[in-house]
Design a protein that fits this description.
With 258 residues, the chain is mainly beta. It is 0% helix and 70% strand. A twelve-stranded antiparallel sheet has the order 1-2-3-4-5-6-7-8-9-10-11-12, with no helix packed on it. Strand 6 and strand 7 form a beta hairpin.
Length: 258
């Protein structure tokens, strides 16, 4: 039967700062008992951040996030008044490291590396049958920003994600790669009267396990069906600076999306 829901949430954050460092730790917990049977949600998050700058040129940063989510019949099916007695338990891990270097007054370099892992276990509360899905993998990116003269600046970089998706249920297991690699370059032209123009593009390579990522309650069975594409994606952006201190921006681009 339908009912009202009660939500409570709390968080605690502590921070520390010095001449060459900064850090913070936080804890968050939220609980919603739902507006009907098997509709509750509980979320717990732990976050940590630390940055260290030994000099004005170099900066190091570490971010860690650990989370969990316990929920019932979410997202809701087509008929919210008909609960499905399934529980979902999700564990999330995200660890990121970043480095920033000032090469010169007109050139900067940034490097980042991230590891992500998400696990979700589904349990049928009537039969006890369990299923588990895992998405995991590392991600890296290198980017440089530099100026050439007074009117031109560049952004160039490359990155990639090397992941996998694994599904296990009833003794059977399906696994596929989930990867993305790209390189990009954009140039910005300034001082063109009231105009500023950005033009460039990226080359993207994507391999996505579309057969494993099906919609909730779609009644579509998972299968090893992949999508692969390599494509050049152009981009054009224009900014107009009006005398009234108003800025108008417009952009057009194409993006690879499986």
């Amino acid at each position: 039967s339908l009912d009202d829901s009660g939500l409570w949430e709390g968080d605690v954050t502590g921070a520390v700062n010095g001449d060459k460092y900064a850090g913070a730790l936080s804890y968050q917990k939220a609980h919603d008992d739902g507006f009907r049977v098997n509709n509750e949600t509980q979320i717990v998050n732990y976050r940590g951040f630390f940055e260290y700058s030994p000099n004005y040129k170099d900066s190091y940063q570490l971010n860690v996030q650990l989370g969990s989510k316990e929920s019932g019949d979410l997202p809701l099916p087509d008929a919210p008044v008909s609960p499905q007695y399934i529980s979902l338990d999700t564990e999330f891990t995200n660890i990121g490291f970043g480095y920033h270097r000032i090469l010169s007054p007109s050139a900067h370099l940034a490097v980042s590396a991230i590891y992500n892992e998400t696990e979700q276990e589904t349990t049928d509360l009537f039969s006890g049958i369990k299923g588990e899905g895992t998405l995991k993998g590392p991600q890296v990116e290198v980017q440089s920003v530099f100026r050439m003269g007074k009117k031109t600046s560049w952004i160039v970089g490359a990155g990639g994600f090397d992941g996998s998706v694994e599904l296990e249920s009833g003794g059977s297991e399906i696994s596929q790669d989930d990867t993305f690699v790209n390189g990009y370059a954009y140039v910005r032209f300034s001082d063109l009267g009231p105009f500023e123009v950005t033009v460039g593009g990226s080359v993207d390579r994507v391999d996505a396990p579309l057969g494993l990522l099906v919609l909730e309650n779609s009644r579509i069975t998972q299968a090893e069906i992949g999508f692969s594409e390599t494509k050049f994606n152009p981009k054009l952006g224009v900014s107009v600076y009006l005398p009234s201190k108003t800025v108008l921006r417009a952009a057009g681009y194409y993006r690879t999306a499986p």
